[in-house]
TrEMBL record:
Compositional bias of kind Basic and acidic residues: 123-140, 178-198
Domain named Trichome birefringence-like C-terminal: residues: 310-595
GO MF annotation, one: O-acetyltransferase activity
Protein name according to UniProt: Trichome birefringence-like N-terminal domain-containing protein
Amino acid sequence: MLDSPSNRRIIFPKGRRYVIFAFVFITFFVLISVLSVFIIPVTTYHHLLHYNQSQVSSLISRLLSNSTTVVNSPQFSRKFNAFSPNRRSKSKSSHHHNDHQIPKTKVVSMEAPAPPSPSSSNRDFRSWRTRIRPPDDARVSENTNGHLRAKPSHHNDHISKTKSVVSMEAASPSSNHDSWKTRIRPPDDARVSEDRNGNSRKVKSPVTDAHNNSNNNQSDVKIGKLESLDFARNLDIEEEEKKRRRHRKNWIEKMTHCRFFNGRWVKDQSLPLYKPGSCPFMDESFNCFNNGKPETAYQKYRWQPYECNLPRWNGKKMLRLLKGKRLVYVGDSLNRNMWVSMVCMLRSIVDNSSNVYEASDWKEYHVSKSYSIVFRDYNFTVEYYKASFLVQEWQTKNANGTTKETLRLDLVHRTSDLYRNADILVFNTGHWWTHEKTSAGKGYYQEGDHVYKQLHVMEAFRKAMTTWARWLETKVSRKALVFFRGYSSSHFSGGQWNSGGTCDQDNDPIILEKDLPHKNNRVIMEAVEAVLTRLKIPIFYLNVTKMSEYRSDAHPSIYMKPNMTAEERKTVFKFQDCSHWCLPGVPDTWNEIIYGQLLLKYRQQLLKYKH
């Protein structure tokens, strides 16, 4: 029973048992090797498809570094050479030779090539192994003995500009002679391979995609750096803008509360603002330089307030501030003096003076003794309208049928409709209220049909100013910038303009306040200020009375006309001009204050807009 075939065990000899164990072990090792060659790369490739760009780049870099280390190791080279039957006898020498011939590789392909058939020759097997692209300065080829050797590349200049990429193409078993053909680097977005019919086709490459992603990442880094620089630059710009805004705000606050007319005259060698005698719009009586006045020091004084600095004249900026606007002066001949000053100051700045001209097509200007100067390049005008009292000069009939001149205290001047839409208005009146006819007040002032037999000049002045203020509040735009220039001091000595008063001996300005004459009509100033304070619209009062009192040296005096005859000289000594001002001169400073106020308003609007 124990010897039955079903219970009999097969017992191998001891030596044969070891052979079986070895065969099983070798079979297992071969299977593992085959799996590592075919399955792992394919699995890796499929996993790569599900990774995002950053994960792919990181994984490829890690795998490539490991592959490069293995391929370049001496052990790999020895085993690979020894595997070929033709190289077994020369494996030792070939190993040392190839270590020096094959340069180190920068990037290795991860794509698994197709294995050759068992019937393929050794040369096919050699062509199946991974193709390694050499560095930029060499190419790899095979000599007649099957050894690898390096040869210089004829495209170093081109290759040095590209990245080193490992060829992932497997040689076809049917075309042995093409196994070591020159590998052509495909474009960055595709790989080139051959199908069964030998046609070329593009195949997406994960390695190329990885490199593209790497390039994109590098571009993103560069863009990020640029964005950081832009951000820092924007921060600097924003900080500078904040500083400018703070500076502008402080400047506005200081200028708003500054008392411009409390100051003194200081010498300034940079003056005058325009060349004497160069302005074609200059009135002859204001052109003291051409009329032969020997002193020129009166042109070299600048007004300096005690509490702030008056903005220095910037003609180009003033031209821009006036662009597309109407600047209008309304009043007596002292305001015409100021108008001529502004025209000459602006004309000296323009690039093409031929584009500054009088608007001769407006007939009403010459009829009313008014003028308009056009600055065509900047599309604005500077105009003057004569209105010595700001109210209407009138004629009425007496009981006997004769006519007499009166002053309508209830009607604004007839030219008012011509300038009520102006953007900037500069008014004045005062000197004509001191003349004999107005100061006497007998049968001269009229309201409606009523002519006052007797009315005090200051009462008449208040009525006239009230009429003007009412028109200003109802007819002038609230957007307009309105100035009223105060009384400009005269400097007659020994009489008035018609009674032998002179000023031709005054060659220097008055320096100290205690030396001021204090003889000008303060009553007119008080009446003006009383009316202006009751106005419902904003108005800037150019209180030039005190600052002009210092300048007894700056009047035309006897220099009112060029090339005078002896008879004219006798007359001119009797009737000197100690009311108007030489130009360049004091009215330039008045206009500088207007410029400062325009600049202040512009910056206030700019600050309000940015907030």
